[in-house]
Amino acid sequence: xxxxxxxxxxxxxxxxxxxxxxxxxxxxxxxxxxxxxxxxxxxxxxxxxxxxxxxxxxxxxxxxxxxxxxxxxxxxxxxxxxxxxxxxxxxxxxxxxxxxxxxxxxxxxxxxxxxxxxxxxxxxxxxxxxxxxxxxxxxxxxxxxxxxxxxxxxxxxxxxxxxxxxxxxxxxxxxxxxxxxxxxxxxxxxxxxxxxxxxxxxxxxxxxxxxxxxxxxxxxxxxxxxxxxxxxxxxxxxxxxxxxxxxxxxxxxxxxxxxxxxxxxxxxxxxxxxxxxxxxxxxxxxxxxxxxxxxxxxxxxxxxxxxxxxxxxxxxxxxxxxxxxxxxxxxxxxxxxxxxxxxxxxxxxxxxxxxxxxxxxxxxxxxxxxxxxxxxxxxxxxxxxxxxxxxxxxxxxxxxxxxxxxxxxxxxxxxxxxxxxxxxxxxxxxxxxxxxxxxxxxxxxxxxxxxxxxxxxxxxxxxxxx
Length: 466
Ligand code: GAP
Description:
Herpes Virus-1, alpha+beta, binds glycyl-adenosine-5'-phosphate, 23 strands, 5-stranded mixed beta sheet, 14 helices, BirA Bifunctional Protein, domain 2, 466 residues, 3 domains, Rossmann fold, 7-stranded mixed beta sheet
């Protein structure tokens, strides 16, 4: 298990400005959260790392940035209008609504719910006499009914007049399929290659979701990797390894990661094989990333429905035309941000009775990398600390913080809680007002994890920190 409970992380996120409840001053909105200054930085750093590692640094990958509202025909061709459904069930007593499969799984873990129809799920709820998790009443559930997860909205300026229903995208993948030909002709890529994208997806999720784990809108990073059909198995294995390799680079403990294959009943309508990379959260093993072999399902359907030829022509044999197959690694960015917060959280007993909370972020994603702390609010200490700040700002790309509020102990605790790897303290030695010889123009660097302090010359600071 991670060191943290979900409540501890939620509380730290609010306290330090990682994540706030959405629309909080109006009482919030179910499943809606806003990222604060540090959470935004963390999520963007993860996104940028992903883009750099999987797109920019690879010759076989290109990126696009596509519209959220697409022609509704896209979602008919992709099968989402017909198949992107959850079976929901209501308590007649208190009117609470639940996903029928989640209701059963929570009450009786291990019960087989995958692939069951709404009628079958209703029968299981009745047979096991499951109580309503909200009001405790038994035997008062409605029949389970199918709800589509796509978010509908209206296009058009005048309410009620000739407006068109459209969907906010339920996955970002479809833009990569409908732009396949545009990308192919403009980049002249050869198979195998991938089209990547990052952005928001929207799903009308009913069941509330463990903080930011399951929300109505969330950030995804994914690519469609186009291949010849014969290569799908080795490509699938390769990307499964790569997804896990990146998680280890971020600093995840492999003991808290595992791969779970979807059963046949569980597969999405487009997938022939799916594997989830799961993380051990305080609320059990949960999907972090997904990997699906989508065959030629999407390109074939879009070709049929749009009438546009989406085939690939073998550059070495113009007579050989075919629809590429696709392996799709999906990285939920919002979910990754939550799991990084859970994984980084630690509490440590210090000498005496004191306990410190510390976020052990990898340096590359720590929202603040170096904090500059004058020992007190004395004017000449602040002036010297500003000098050090400006020096590092000019000579490095480090993410800096400058903090004078509160005692030095409190400021160290705050920097530990936001995961700052190094604190630089400017003290009386630095400005030559200490009896200690040779301390002038030196500062102390404090390491977040070892708590070791080291005296360093300001002239050597840049080299030392980099
Ligand atoms: N294009 C494939 C696709 O979207 P998915 O399994 O439906 O696949 C991909 O979702 C990832 O999106 C999941 O692995 C998870 O990280 C994230 N995800 C799905 N639903 C979510 C929700 N309601 N809130 C937050 N993240 C979600």
